[in-house]
Amino acid sequence: MAPITSLPAEILLDIFERTINDPFNPHRDTNTDIIHIRLVCRKWRALSHEFALRYFSIGIDSTNRSLWKLGRCLLYDTSLAAQIQELIVRWHRREADIPETHTKRWKWTREDRERIEFYRKELSSHISSATFDAMLEGVNSESLLPFILCFTTNLKELDLNNMESLLIGRVWFADSHGVGSETIRRVLGRGPSEEGFKYIEDEDEDEDDEYGAEDYEDDDYDSDRRYLDCDEEFLRNHMPPEAKGEGALWFHVNIGTPGNYLPGLRQVTHLRNGFNSYNFVIDSLSGWSAKYIAPLLFLPNLEFLEIKSHATIGGTIYGDKNAIHRPLPPSFEPYRGLKSKVKTLELWDGRLRLEDYDAIAELTGNLTDLQIDHSEHHNPLPDPDLAYIANTFRAYNKETLTLHKICINDWFAYSMPGINFD
Fold this sequence. Notes:
alpha/beta, F-box_dom, F-box domain-containing protein
């Protein structure tokens, strides 16, 4: 029987495309499949450059570390990224009290680090130096996302799902859950900035014990020290400063602005950005900061934008959930006078005030469909305020948005008391 590698190229391509672009299983770890195909032989590696990746799924901090492997692949050959048409992001963050989720630190070779330093200079106008520092740390694989999105030049759809900005689940609740700095250190292992740590070179294959993630003991750290130490000593090297107070990802702080977006986002027509509601930070916003909606709205070819669990308000979990307010108008000021091309806007589980809806509406001008689900739990709004929001959006989209295409809290605008029919 002839081996499968002897099949004609057109048949192999059909098999590859049916496997990789399986519409019944769009959530598979696609980059692992691609890597396996490329490793079979030279013929298969060459063929892997010829088919479009309609559904490409990546796992943030997955224990198989496939996203790190993809990052290493792109350091030497970026052509794979140009094949991706739809990118789906899945979240597999470490949880402090579940050892099975404790993904090992990724170890770059000397040659890898030289390539990273090359791209640090080459992409300096798109990606911050701090992002490359986080990549080198090998802990937060989400830091690779801006790098990947520099090369996805044919990307049409990006689904971030319910993102988890926190590096380690439940770390912010350390006091109540008994998760001290020693526990967090065991999760992450020692990093390149800590004394005694050396990068692992190609010849060292001992991945299990090098970082001491299981049996490392630190006499300098008291296990009773809690959240502040975890934040200061561990998380600042892996997460953007905006993560704690705003729920932002490296993606958000590097996305760019009109005229200078990440190259791989310039053809995107559909984008979804949710947020894990259990991931919010106590004593801060009750969701991810809505100020990042503005740069998303102005992606040059974006037509559909879905946002979930965005916030400008927050407070203590036991006190006033509306005690903090970070209004949108000041952060939206650089975009004043611009009009988004987005046609469909869906704002789900929003934790905003009226002036914030005003600020978002002012940036629109081409909407044909508007869906809003305002969070009554965080900031209840009376019926007249819902009508006010509908009137405001319609005023900025007079030529394109009808009352039948505005729905707020499952209430169509044409049936709202106080709606403006002009």
